[in-house]
Specification:
By secondary structure, this protein is α/β, with parallel strands linked by helices. Helices cover 33% and strands 14% of the residues. Helix 2 runs parallel beside helix 13 and helix 6 packs across helix 8. The model has no long low-confidence stretch (mean pLDDT 96).
Length: 334
Amino acid sequence: MEKWRVLLTARALAEVGRPALDILREAGCALISPTRPGTFSAAELISQLEGIDAILCSPDKFTADVFASPAARSLKIISRWGVGYDSVDIASASAAGVVVAFTPGMLNDAVADYAFALMFAIARRIPDGNAALKEGRWSAPWGHDIGNKTLGIIGCGRIGQAVARRAAGFNMRLLGHDVMPNADAEKLGVKFVPLEELLRQSDFITLHAALTPQTQNIIGEPQLRMMKPNAYLINTARGGHIDEAALARALTENWIAGAALDTFVTEPLPKDHPFRSTPNLLLTPHQAGFARGTGEDVSRASAQAIVDLMHGRKPQHVVDAAVFDSPALRAKLN
């Protein structure tokens, strides 16, 4: 059986990738490491795809140009480390016969935990207290309570529901907004309301929606001006949900009390980005899923998807299962 060449662009593999790499090596795969970990642009990807059968990837930009490139003619599967796949042109992938695998559900708890960590850190001004002590000052900043407050959850799927379960322990009132309200979230105490109502009533707003044309810039200047002046915004979903220029202005002019962001429109965050000097803003480098046990599990699942397809089996989780019925499918199934 042909042994595949696998390009490794997921930056998480450097810390929690050993189980995944063992799976790939034991299957006989040749592992190809880029000069640096992702995220890669379409042009950067194309320059590395010659002779590559599979990619275990970060949110690299898999555009239609990538799939149309002669350099990608051997590519059979993209296995995304994580749940998001908005960086992949799924229609173009399927049309080219390339399978796109992902790991839905595996990051739910890690991301929900992290959303709460950001909420506590920014609301109770933990980074400010830490900075004061390290600068030699004994200055305890005042923050805001979290228990018994109203939490607005935008995007009430798996991760949003995991957040709702945690919020119950703090006796929080739960408001939700989703393009598809669901009974599972309602059973957890989430009351679905129009976005405007959620923005006006919530003390904390946390984003957990998929990035779609409907949710692109769902938080812009009009929405920020609807929020309470003592409210906080948390984003562990996708940077594209927020108009970053509007948020920088809102925080500089104190429209809201603060924000904590783990995702950005451009990643890595540019060195000259206004957020680096914006007040009342906590920034982290897209690390919500970076819990070691969870990371190892996701790495294994991402690698296993590649091995399964190499052996002619359908991976457990694919974005578009119709690709298996396509005459363009590049992998051979048993």
